[in-house]
Design a protein that fits this description.
Arylsulfatase, C-terminal domain; alpha/beta; 11 helices; 497 residues; single chain; ten-stranded mixed sheet; four-stranded antiparallel sheet; globular
């Protein structure tokens, strides 16, 4: 009977959602004709809170002059979100345009020897842009898994949850570091890569598809990544000046360990975390200065954002600094502080300078947006959860009407029509040890219907999620949980037509 009731409910809601789908922007179709195809530099900070950035939070105690200048020259989005409140699932969503909970990873993050989360044959934003004629490169933190070559005689069948993933030795004895890794950046559309496997600070680094053997001090990581990006750009300009490029620069800052470089240590006056924010800001300044020097500024779209919200550091509160701004929660949480991220875009002459947008967007939408920007059509099973926000980037077009986010422990939240429903906890949805009344991750298409606890917020009027309305609007809760069940069942949110 439960199966029949849920199936009927999902079928009826599928008809109702035709109207919802038509309200979304036409992802996969070039909605706007632009005079040129830009170079693209995408800078992804790690654990940088929305409120850490001065242009977002006038009360921020940390100076971010370079990010603020970028915002003054471009557009700042005030309702940008990561698809998850932790690293790996957000990076998967960004690169593929698909929610990571559709994969085998239903909670947590990946470790050094976890297998590749992006499977062979799935298009990424890098392979999309490469097909569009771009020269592509990635530097910094990868964190979506690699397929290692096992030692001779080892079956190589380790998966999530097996002890090889936690091996703390420089190189786990089950892998052969002399052989190439597979289904990494250079198999997924990037012409070149240099960076760490699971953190910006790593025990070892990968150069293209091989272990490099380099030893990098913790307070040098982002400087090394930036230097690699600079070399790539200088070489590109010298050898391929007429070809567009895409650089994905995934920073270590501001993730722990908090190891700012010596020239920034103590400069923020807000402790090591503040110094790490300065490091991220400094890198933004280095990128924009390099583009100016190479005379690429006018032809380059620069995007700066973060993979999730800030970690909770009690010293912030003591100092009076709120890294989450006016939102509740932090990294790993289902509350907005876990997914509400800074998002700034600059493209002179195309993205209006000195403007802000309150349109709802998600990092998973970068795929469809870049497809539209380059005139690429998306097939039915590419970027299934990605929506084109190019009209909102360069004009006053719409954003999303709906968003699904995911916490560290696998707790879902769905936002629609100014409401937000969290299913599976009465607490944060973050690390299990601090999540009261938490229902462990359940599986199956009827999971939303089986989850008996949750929270409901009128997010449009209560962005701080201060008043839980669970129990007061049962019809609304049923509508949202049924919609979530449908999205899970059909394997997509974007209409492929």
């Amino acid at each position: 009977m439960l199966f029949m009731r849920i199936s009927l409910r999902l079928a009826l809601l599928a008809l109702l959602n035709v109207a919802w789908a038509s309200a979304q922007t036409g992802a996969g179709k070039a909605a706007t004709t632009l005079p040129s195809t830009p170079n693209i530099v995408f800078i992804l900070a790690d654990d940088l809170g929305y409120g850490d950035v001065g242009c977002n939070n006038p009360k921020s105690l940390i100076p971010t002059p370079n990010v603020d200048k970028l915002a003054a020259q471009g557009r700042r989005f005030t309702e940008a979100h990561s698809p998850a409140s932790v690293c790996s699932p957000t990076r998967y969503g960004l690169l593929t345009g698909r929610y990571a909970w559709r994969t085998a990873m239903k909670e947590g993050v990946l470790y050094d020897y976890d297998p590749a989360l992006i499977k062979k044959g799935r298009m990424t934003i890098a392979s999309l842009l490469k097909e569009a004629g771009y020269h592509t490169a990635a530097f910094g933190k990868w964190h979506v898994g690699l397929d290692w070559t096992p030692k001779e005689g080892d079956p190589g069948d380790w998966q999530w949850g097996q002890m090889v993933r936690y091996d703390s030795r420089p190189i786990a004895p089950r892998v052969d570091p002399t052989k190439p890794v597979h289904n990494g950046p250079t198999d997924l559309g990037f012409d070149t890569f240099y960076g760490g496997v699971s953190q910006g600070v790593s025990r070892f680094y990968i150069a293209d598809d091989r272990v490099s053997g380099d030893a990098i001090r913790r307070d040098e990581t982002d400087n090394v990544f930036m230097s690699k990006a600079e070399s790539f750009l200088r070489d590109h300009v010298a050898k391929q000046p007429g070809k567009p490029f895409f650089v994905y620069l995934a920073l270590h800052a501001v993730h722990s360990p908090l190891t700012p470089p010596a020239n920034l240590k103590g400069k923020s006056k807000t402790g090591l975390l503040g110094d790490m924010v300065l490091w991220a800001d400094q890198t933004v300044g280095r990128v924009t200065a390099l583009l100016d020097e190479l005379k690429l500024t006018q032809d380059t779209l620069v995007i700066f954002t973060s993979d999730n919200g800030s970690v909770h550091y009690p010293d912030n509160a003591k100092l009076g600094h709120s890294p989450s701004g006016d939102r509740r929660g932090y990294k790993t949480d289902a509350w907005d502080g876990g997914t509400h991220v800074p998002f700034i875009a600059r493209w002179p002459g195309h993205v209006p300078a000195g403007t802000t947008s309150d349109k709802l967007i998600c990092l998973v939408d970068m795929f469809a947006t870049l497809a539209a920007l380059t005139g690429r059509e998306l097939s039915e099973w590419q970027a299934e959860d990605s929506f084109n926000f190019l009209p909102a980037l360069i004009g006053d077009g719409p954003g999303r009407t709906e968003l699904i986010t995911h916490s560290y422990t696998g707790v879902f939240a769905i936002r629609q029509d100014g409401w937000k429903l969290i299913l599976g906890t009465k607490g944060s949805g973050g690390h299990q040890g601090i999540t009261p009344e938490w229902q462990p991750t359940q599986t199956g298409f009827d999971r939303p219907a089986k989850t008996s606890i949750g929270q409901l917020y009128h997010i449009a009027e209560d962005p701080g999620e201060t008043t839980d309305l669970w129990g007061k609007h049962p019809e609304l809760i049923n509508r949202l949980r049924t919609r979530l069940g449908l999205v899970m069942q059909q394997g997509r949110t974007r209409d492929p037509k």
